[in-house]
Structures are given as structure tokens and as C-alpha cells.
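Section 5.1 Outputs to date
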Amino acid sequence: YANGLYVIMGKWVTQDLSSIDNEINDFVSIVSLYKDHPAVLMWAFGNEVPNTSNWFIKLASAALRAREIDSSHLVTTANRDLDRIGDSAVNADDNSLPYLGVWGINLYPGSDFGTLFSSYKSRSSKPLIMTEWGSDAWNSNITGEDEDMQSGYIESQWKDIIANSD
């Protein structure tokens, strides 16, 4: 914070969900402990957790409990691409997640994001953040790193993000 940095405080969640209630309690403890720290930008619960109905129900619970303690900061999650976002059958729609303030997605698409942004707008009215994105420098065609290819992809992705920011 002293250097002008803000953080999304994340709580990693195990993939099998067997201890999800304990993980929610740990998340709530983190929110309680750091809610007044000036460097906190928002809270994140989970990173690429399997997108099942049970996960989204638990995500809704975690977001509600965080917001009950701290109404000043939004709650997000890092979803695996657009997988299930907006799907009411698994409780991943805006109505089922009223306390999730922002959707986060991890995506490594290639040189641009294709129809991601228009597809997202048809799934949710919440803001979208890119929690992970980019391009690997490894080029299997040359069996080595290709930083020129990587930088070209990332530059193209940035342009795509900027063109679709509103």
C-alpha cells in the first residue's frame, strides 16, 4: 500500500469441495482480519474450482458472508473461462449470485479473445475482470521459447481488451 499497490485478497479453494464449509470459514476469517486494510481492492474466493451446482451454491454463501462483514469491498472468483457463467441450472447466474460483485475469468485464448466479450454480455450484467490471461512463450514448432510470438499475442490481446472495455 505504501507503494501505491492494491490487492485482490484471494482464498484458494480445494478442487474436491469436501472441506468447502471449512474453506468458507477460513475465507470469512481473512475478510474479518483484513477488511479495514487500505490496500484491499476486493475479495476472491476460489480459482478454477470445478463448475458444479454445489460449487456455485457455496460461492454464493461465501460471497454473502463476506459482504455481511465487509460491505465496502466486492467479492469475485476466478472462473475457468466462461464455463457455466450465466447458467441457472447450476446456480451460476446473476440472480443466484447476488453478492458476487464481479466475475473473474482465467483464459489463454491465443492472439485474441474471439467472441468472449459479446458472449459474456449475454450471460451476465456484472463487471468482468481478467484474473489470468496471456500467452506462453513456448513454441512447439521450434521446440523452444519464442518471445517475439509471445509479445505479439499479448499486444494483440491488450488491444482486444481495450476495444471491448466499457
